[in-house]
Amino acid sequence: MTRFFKKKPQSEKKQSSSSDWVMGKHSIEEALKYSSRSIKEIFIAKSHQRDDPIVRAAEKEGIHINWVSKDYLTEQLQSDSHQGYAAKVKPFFYHDPLEFIEKTTKNADESQLYVALDSIYDPHNFGAILRASECFGVSGVIYSKNRGVDLTAAVSKASVGASLLMPLLKVSNLVEAVKKFKEEGFEVITAEISKEAVPLDTFTFNKKTLLILGSEGEGVRTLLSEQADKKLYIKMFGKIDSLNVSQATSVLLFNWRVSLSRNS
Asked: Where is this region: Disordered (predicted)?
């Protein structure tokens, strides 16, 4: 079902919250493959071809397509990096931490790792962390609604669709959420450089792990660091002595998976 708008869609005249959108060609493709039910309608720049694979996939799923100007997309998304593709999505569902933990820990033999984000303000880092988390099979991502970037169209693009697939736990107090995980038997790990930190490549992960990641500038806040059972750091071998937080996440999660396979 395709609609062509010469003017702005009547229902879309007001600028929408950017959390209602997913943008970027690859993000839309992944959403159509794995989360098509979350898509309400798709917007494509008029300059793109009418036989676009995204058009065919959307029409197969019965999703409306709106042909609009790139300026319209830029206005709605508050970004010009949409590549001429965007989708309005259903409101994101945020899980209650305790309820979600109880539901997912019924199988005691299943290994679980949650990622908690402390003060991650860069949307590209947030999106890349969601992408890595989905790729490595993380159980869920927790972040504070008060300290860090929220889900936006830019985050969804950087996540390449993972924002629609990854269970998200949005909390008002991250420290209290971490304490709840500890009460449920999770080992709390922070990624930071400190006297107590051990090299990642020598560490064996527990079956139930909460991994806390901090911002590149300040790292993990003291209140959260004090909750850690173990602290890890990644060895560097080049002249540059650090990775950004999303790159570090991929390294940490890969090593988690390696640790699980070693102990299986």
From this structure: 1-20
CB 184 within 8 A of CB 101: yes
Residue closest to 36 by CA, chosen among 45, 44, 27: 27
**Helix or strand run (H / E) with residue 127:** helix 123-135
Return the number of other C-beta atoms located less than 10 Å from residue 243's C-beta: 15
Q: Tokens 């071998």 correspond to what residue?
A: 237
Q: Which long-range contacts (CB under 8 A, 24 or more apart) does 94-97 make?
A: 94/168, 94/169, 94/170, 95/140, 95/167, 95/168, 95/169, 96/169, 97/142, 97/169, 97/171, 97/177, 97/180, 97/181
DSSP 90: P
Distance between CA 68 and CA 49 in Å, rounded?
A: 13
Entry pTM: 0.82
Domains in the chain (CATH in brackets) are 2-89 (3.30.1330.30), 97-263 (3.40.1280.10)
**202-228 pLDDT per residue, tens:** 999 999 999 999 987 788 999 999 999
What is the band of 107 on the pLDDT scale with cuts at 50, 70, 90? low
Q: What is the pLDDT of residues 113-137, one digit of tens each?
A: 999 999 999 999 999 999 999 999 9
Three-state SS at 8: coil
